[in-house]
Design a protein that fits this description.
alpha+beta, Jelly Rolls, 7 helices, 17% helix, flat, disordered N terminus
Length: 467
């Protein structure tokens, strides 16, 4: 009887073993690990003292708003995640902070910042730093007592494993304009050996790799339609994913960008078509040197490709042409002092004349020719300007204007009064103002007609008005 029971037990065990192994010849196991991380940098910023760094201090979180007065203080903590394998599965990640001083009831959220290159000695309240903080809180707690507070930041740790660093931000979690006042002070990591200093506890599983199976060579190619575009212009991003030269279809490729070396920011995730290609359109919103990166991750290996392009400020063709013509025409009037005189036979000639009192600080040297030319000499205006500026045709004035004329503005400089010159300038300004341009008019005489018609677009600077 006992032998029968023993045989049945062995049979059940064998069936269970076969059940669990069937179909899992290439199974993988995982090993659970736990790690406690201290911040490598921590500090806080203050909206009322934006240029002060509070390195070495404890961590503050404050919210004060009673219209029109407001103040906020946010705390930043930077952690090094390079000791955790990138392909690990995050089981849990919790931020522990100890509040030893609480005034009022304060709702605090744990957020993630894309900036991981800061130090507490260079931590200031700037627009760039505020913009780097995510809009959604990973976890929120209501603070009212002196105690430990624990924030769940598992998703933030998982998303930061690839970069190897994580910045967590503790800040008030209130809607804009909400009237309230409360604050809390936490211990920082600047007190060595203190048990109550902040820490990040992570539990993760490192997969044990299964025996390697033959895999082909995966290649990823990223391209753009143009390597120089303007802000707000559609950019076509495309590429292909292949394995041993054959297309990989229905695979997800992540597209990111970095502006002027900043942290990588996601653009979108695209899926490859049946031919292994992908394509999307995107509008850059800021100018500067832009780097795009495509990444494909699958079964423990990663391939990526990147490309660079230049994003320029958007120019207005009408204004640029208008200013260029203005620079050439006004340079001729100002620096040569030409009078257009009609001859009897219906032709024109250029006669140089002496300018007794040149304006806007321009020195004019009088020259005389033995005989006037029968034909009008050609006038060549050399235009030189700094990038994104328009030259007025004279190096000295270009330097005084900081490189030339700014886009969307027109500067009109006149010589001493002349009926034909006044008519030219008046008509020139009138056309530009009606087209929506702004004008700065440096002159000795006030143009009352244009000033009344365009009070918000025309600016007069009266120099040496007649006595």
């Amino acid at each position: 009887m006992e032998s029968t029971k023993y045989f049945k037990a062995m049979l059940v065990t064998l069936i269970l073993i076969l059940t669990f192994t069937e179909g899992h010849v290439d199974w993988t196991s995982s090993e659970a690990n736990a790690v406690i991380l201290k911040p490598i940098q921590d500090g806080y910023i203050d909206s009322l003292q934006p240029s002060v760094d509070f390195s070495g201090s404890n961590l503050y979180v404050e919210y004060y708003y009673f219209k029109p007065h407001s103040r906020q203080r946010w705390s930043f903590l930077l952690f090094n995640l390079t000791g955790i394998p990138r392909d690990s599965k995050i089981e849990s990640a919790e931020l522990y902070v100890y509040a030893f001083d609480v005034h009022g009831t304060l709702r605090v959220g744990a957020y993630r910042s894309s900036d991981t290159s800061w130090s507490e000695r260079e931590l200031y309240w700037t627009q760039a730093r505020i913009s780097s903080v995510s809009q959604r809180a990973a976890d929120t707690k209501q603070l009212s007592n002196i105690a430990w507070y624990v924030f769940n930041v598992s998703s933030e740790v998982k998303e930061s494993l690839r970069d190897g660093k994580l910045t967590l931000v503790l800040k008030p979690d209130y809607p804009e304009g909400f009237e309230h006042a409360a604050s809390a002070v936490f211990y920082s990591s600047d007190q060595p050996g203190r048990f109550n200093s902040p820490r990040l506890e992570i539990v993760y599983a490192s997969p044990t790799p299964s025996p390697a199976q033959p895999k082909g060579k995966v290649t990823l190619k990223l391209s753009v339609e143009s390597h120089k575009i303007q802000v707000g212009t559609d950019l076509t991003i495309f590429g292909g994913l292949k394995i041993d030269g054959s297309p990989l279809k229905e695979k997800t490729v992540k597209i990111e960008y970095s502006l002027e070396g900043s942290a990588w920011t996601p653009i979108s995730k695209v899926e490859t078509d049946s031919d292994g290609t992908f394509k999307l359109r995107w509008k850059p919103e800021k100018e500067g040197r832009l780097r795009l990166r495509a990444t494909f991750e699958d079964e423990g290996y990663t391939v990526e490709d990147s490309t660079e392009l230049e994003v320029e400020a958007k120019s207005t063709p009408l204004n640029m042409a208008y200013i260029t013509v203005a620079a050439a025409a006004l340079a001729a009037i100002l620096f040569l002092g030409v009078d257009f005189m009609r001859r009897r036979r219906g032709r024109y000639r250029l006669l140089e004349r002496k300018i007794s009192k040149p304006e806007v600080g321009v020195v004019v040297t009088e020259t005389r020719r033995p005989e006037p030319q029968e034909t009008a000499p050609s006038l060549k205006v050399k235009v030189e300007a700094e990038p994104r500026y328009v030259s007025i045709g004279h190096r000295g004035l270009d330097r005084l204007l900081g490189g030339g004329l700014r886009p969307n503005y027109v500067v009109a400089l006149t010589s001493p009064s002349c009926d034909e010159v006044d008519l030219l300038i008046h008509r020139f300004l009138e056309v530009g103002l009606e087209a929506g341009n702004s004008a700065l008019y440096v002159t000795k005489r006030f143009d009352i007609e244009l000033a009344n018609k365009h009070p918000k677009k025309l600016y007069h600077v009266i120099c040496n008005p007649p006595g």
